[in-house]
Amino acid sequence: MKLSIHSTLALCGMFIFSLACNTLIPTNPPADTSPRPTDNEFVTVNRITLDDATMDFYDVNGATESELRDSMNALHPSDPYNPGQSYDALTNWYVSWTWDGYGQETCDLESAVVQYEITVTFPRWNAPADASPELIKKWNRYTESLARHEKGHVDSVIEYYPKVEQAIQNATCSTAEAAAQTVMAELQTVNNAYDADTAHGDTQGARFP
């Protein structure tokens, strides 16, 4: 466990985890009402966003399925917690907690503050003018499925992080840190099972081509 200092609070416990997935899925983007491109301009395809998460895009290039696949293979993120494993999309989450008197025999667990940060690394493609409409549709379906899978990971973090506060406040000053870590271990187990059940999004349609 790493420790950090909050400006108005005491030392902070934290749990960092990475979720490797083949795909990510977004909330529905607003309808694109921009003018259609002329020659040598780019066609803007679906722009993926996920509530409660920061999107970190990496740009891929190509005008065919194989070119896009090769570009993703070259650029997709590696899982820092599983050396040698890379995925088209990756969800990293970080949950931190602190309370007045953290690490001391006397403390105020009712003052506990729990925060989270979620970052989803996701592919982004600006389709060239010569890309076929069929390829654009296929890409949009793929990234929508990918985002849907990643949203499952994001939703798990959102569901579990309030439980950390509950666990802390139901513990004692000497057991609160372990109680928080127990909840995080449960969250990790849930996310691992989700990836196993969906084959990292493959069963949800997150496969390209």
Describe this structure in words.
- The chain is α+β, with helices and mostly antiparallel strands and 209 residues long.
- It has one domain (18-24, 41-96, 117-204).
- It is built from three helices and six strands, in the order ββββαββαα.
- It has helices at residues 65-75, 133-169, 176-198; strands at 4-5, 11-21, 42-44, 54-60, 89-100, 108-128.
- Strands 1, 2, 3, 4, 5 and 6 form a six-stranded mixed beta sheet that branches.
- A hairpin with a 5-residue loop joins β1 and β2.
- The protein is elongated.
- The two termini are 40 Å apart.
- The relative contact order is 0.24.
- The model is unreliable at 1-12 and 20-42 (pLDDT under 50).
Write the layout of secondary structure elements.
Layout: E1 4-5, E2 11-21, E3 42-44, E4 54-60, H1 65-75, E5 89-100, E6 108-128, H2 133-169, H3 176-198
Parallel strand pairs: 4-6
Antiparallel strand pairs: 1-2, 2-5, 3-6, 5-6
Helix pairs in contact: 2-3
